[in-house]
Design a protein that fits this description.
This protein is mainly alpha-helical. It is about 45% helix and about 5% strand. It has four helices and two strands. The protein has helices at about 10-20, 45-50, 70-80, 90-105; strands at about 35, 55-60. Helix 1 packs parallel to helix 2.
Amino acid sequence: MLGSTPNPDAGYMAQAARRLTDAADGFLAGHQVLICDRDGKWTEEFRGLLDEAGVRIVLTPVQAPNANAHAERFVRPIREECLDQLILFGERHLIRAVDEFVAHYHRERNHQGAR
C-alpha cells in the first residue's frame, strides 16, 4: 500500500504516485481517472507522475462539502465494521480483509439506512 504519515511532503507524495501507477501492481494500473480534493498535498510532481501514467486527475468542486459524500458512504462502514475490528498483519491481510468486506458490502449488507 502507500504507507501513512500525518504530514506528507512533496517527496512522500511523489513516491506515493510512483507506487499508485506501478505497471505491475499499482492501485491505479489500468485506471484512467483519480478524483482528488483541492488539498495542497496533491503536488505538481504528483500530478505530473499520474499524467505520465495516463491517469487524469479530476478535482472536486470548490467549497462543495457534499462532493465526497458517495465515498464517505463507503469509508465509514468499512472503517467501523471491518478495519476497526481487526489487527492486521501486513498488506496481504489488509487486501484480503478489504476484498471480503467489499463483497459483503455489495452482496449482503442492507443499504436502506436501517442500523
